Structure formats: C-alpha cells, structure tokens
Amino acid sequence: MRISVQADSFDLGAESASFAAGHRDMGAIVTFTGIVRDLPDDPLEAMEIEHYPAMTEKAITAMVVEAIERFSLGDALVIHRHGRLVPGEMIMMVATAARHRRHAFEGASFLMDYLKSRAPFWKREISASGAAWVAATDADEDALSRWER
C-alpha cells in the first residue's frame, strides 16, 4: 500500500509499471488517472488544491485500508496532487491489485468515489469569470452512496 499526496507531477507509465511489478499472485491490476478538465462554458485557467497534510494522509490511508479489506485487494496505490494545476494535467491516480478482476475494479471504483466526494481537499477553480470553490455534486454523492453498508 502506498499513498502519496504531492505537488509534483508523476510519471503514469513508471507508476503503473512499478505498481504491477512483483504482483505475480494477482490476476488483475486496475488503474485510473484523473485529469484536470476544462470547464464547458468558461475556460478554466487553473485549479488550486489545498489540504492539511496530516489530516489528508490519515483519511486517505483509512479508506485504502478499508478498500483492501473490503474487496480482498492484494495492494493499492493512491497518488493525489495539490497546488496549482492547469487543464490537461494529471491530478490523481488510483491503482488496485487483486486475484480477480471484479475485486480490482470494485476497489478502484470505491477509492475513486471516496476521493471525489470525501477526501479532505479543498479545490478552487479559476476561470476568466472569477474563482469558485468546488463542492461535491449530487452525482458524486450518489456514486459514493452505492458503497454504504
């Protein structure tokens, strides 16, 4: 298990290869990469992401531990960036390894839904019309609610 909250960009190919190496007992590796996207009607200049390091890493670690136990994962990786990012830049990566693909996909989906809605990051979009804080949408909340027990 590895969690990295970082300002620096990351090499998707290198991270994927490193994660997959040594998992000979796993039958599936699932990766997802989130990218800062432009706004449809108001071009995005940048997204600024803030966090409180101790709180953020503790919260993400707890969710990764839950995902590993809940979905029988052999391993998991979460990378999430903070700072100023522009459209097209990678913002986060989730990777999961499991003996069976269903568990790897479900574990990755669970972590992505959590990161989108509950991870303690504060995101501000800056566009030509000004700046606005980003809140979780109803769709984000609905996606997360499917994992409630």
Largest sheet: 4 strands, mixed
**CATH topology annotation:** Aldehyde Oxidoreductase, domain 3
Helical content band: 25-40%
Order of the strands making up the biggest sheet: 1-4-6-2
CATH class: Alpha Beta
Shape: globular
CATH architecture: Alpha-Beta Complex
Hey, roughly how much beta strand do the residues contain? 35-45%
Low-confidence stretches: none
CATH superfamily: Molybdopterin biosynthesis MoaE subunit
Structural class: alpha+beta
Q: Termini, distance in Å?
A: 24 Å
Mean pLDDT, all residues:
94
Q: What is the number of helices? A: 4
Q: How many domains comprise the coordinates?
A: 1
Gyration radius, in Å: 16 Å
SSE blueprint and pairings:
Elements: E1 2-6, H1 12-20, E2 28-35, E3 44-51, H2 53-70, E4 73-81, E5 83-85, E6 90-98, H3 101-117, E7 121-127, E8 130-133, H4 138-145
Parallel strand pairs: 1-4
Antiparallel strand pairs: 2-6, 3-5, 3-7, 4-6, 7-8
Helix pairs in contact: 2-3, 3-4
What's a quick, concise take on this entry?
This protein is of the alpha+beta class and 149 residues long. Helices cover 35% and strands 36% of the residues.
Characterization of the model:
- This protein is of the alpha+beta class and 149 residues long.
- The chain has a single domain, classed as Aldehyde Oxidoreductase, domain 3 (Alpha-Beta Complex), CATH 3.90.1170.40.
- It has helices spanning 12-20, 53-70, 101-117, 138-145; strands at 2-6, 28-35, 44-51, 73-81, 83-85, 90-98, 121-127, 130-133.
- The strands form two sheets. It has a four-stranded mixed beta sheet, sandwiched between helices. It has a four-stranded antiparallel beta sheet with strand order 5-3-7-8.
- β7 (121-127) and β8 (130-133) form a beta hairpin.
- It is globular.
- The model has no long low-confidence stretch (mean pLDDT 94).
